[in-house]
Amino acid sequence: MPDNISVEERGQLYAKELGKLIERPTISADLPKLLNLPVDAGPEYFARFRETLEEVFPLVHSNLEIVRVKDDALLFRWKGKSADKPIVLLAHQDVVPAEEGAWKYPPFSGTVADGKIWGRGAMDCKNVIYSSLRAIEELLAEGFIPEYDVYFASSDSEEIAGGGAPAIRDYLKERGVNPFIVLDEGGIIIDKLFAPVKKPFAVIGIVEKGFGVIKFSAKSRGGHTTAPPKNTPFERLARFIVDVHSHSYFKPYFSPELVKTVKALADGVSPPLKFVFKHIRLFAPLVSRMLPKLHPFGGGLLCTNITFTMSGGAIVPNMIPPEAYVVANLRYSAYQTVADCNKLFERLIKKYDLEMEVIAAQDATSTVDTDSDGYRYLTDCIRETFPDIGIAPYIVLGGTDGRHFSEISPCSLRFSPVRLSSEQLATMHGLDENLDISALVESVVFLKRFIQNHK
Ligand SMILES: [Zn+2]
Known about the structure:
Elements: H1 7-22, H2 30-35, H3 43-56, H4 58-63, E1 65-70, E2 73-78, E3 82-90, E4 112-113, E5 116-118, H5 126-141, E6 148-154, H6 164-174, E7 181-184, E8 189-190, E9 201-208, E10 211-219, H7 233-246, H8 256-265, H9 273-278, H10 280-294, H11 296-302, E11 305-312, E12 323-331, H12 338-351, E13 355-362, H13 373-385, E14 390-396, E15 412-414, E16 419-420, H14 422-425, E17 434-436, H15 437-452
Parallel strand pairs: 3-6, 3-7, 7-15, 8-16, 9-14
Antiparallel strand pairs: 1-2, 2-6, 4-5, 5-17, 8-9, 10-12, 10-13, 11-12
């Protein structure tokens, strides 16, 4: 990149190149099948996506080791002077489907307009693929040699919690790679976190909640609905659901992680709230009661939560189902684990004569120490590039690829150096996903520094 190019020209170039990545509808082949969607997806789009990467990043492709670890999951290695303390940057290639007709600009056109790049993946998260590889491409052009190895890893199946990221993790583990720091999506720079917070904040995910799927079923001898017995399968399931929702089995806990979040946010609020945030431990019992009422996220931050999401029963309406079931999705906090919850459910299913099958279960990740060198390194780099913002560690409620990397690194963090407005954030997985061109330029600047400063 020549030095005499203006920021505007740079932004236009980056935006157009990111648009090319968006043009490839890299929807994981399993997703349309899972959701029953008439979407044309599959490996050919990932192959074309790789060709586009080669076109846009020629130096990356001639200088880095690139491995297809499993299916379309990619790992790039930029050898540094030492293999110790490597940096690992993550960003998944797959995107969720998009309804063609409903968007302002077609979702797979990568249109650049109104100072923004539009399309599926514009912020989740082809922008991060773009800015990571663009940073490396420019550093290569400048003749920079990193002190330590730099890896860029890109799974093909994050949106379906697929095997791409675990395969990359295993590949690194087998080779004894212990990253100094891993950065994945899951944290951003948000303009308005919630009403009283007056300035933009970088939120850095330091722990990720667990994920579970449990099927609860009730059996019966079947029969005709003209002569219904007592305690039909749905009756038992319904009483079970009401029981789960009317008791506080999932205890709210104002965790040390949440204390850290609120204390950090004190920097962005005015008195008297500033005092409350700074001394949040004193107010924790009161705030714990208020938080779930203020926002549904509030409950998620405090405790394990459960949502019943699917059900099934007889195949015709006039039959008592020989078996009926409901499926629950759980999000485990670090303080009420899979084992704790299973113990609770084992007791409850006896009460209602149910059976349970744990379909998926993963505990919350370990928590990254905010006093660690890795965490401090990240916050120093953020302050250098974004001097106007606050920084807060936080609990990630959803699932990311990054969770698999806690096993090989004590510092697997969720943060993308991307400024988003709350309106833009709401378009994630929805209509009109978009990113400001200026945010893309800042991301590249940040990632160059992030690689360069690691000495
Ligand atoms: Zn994502």
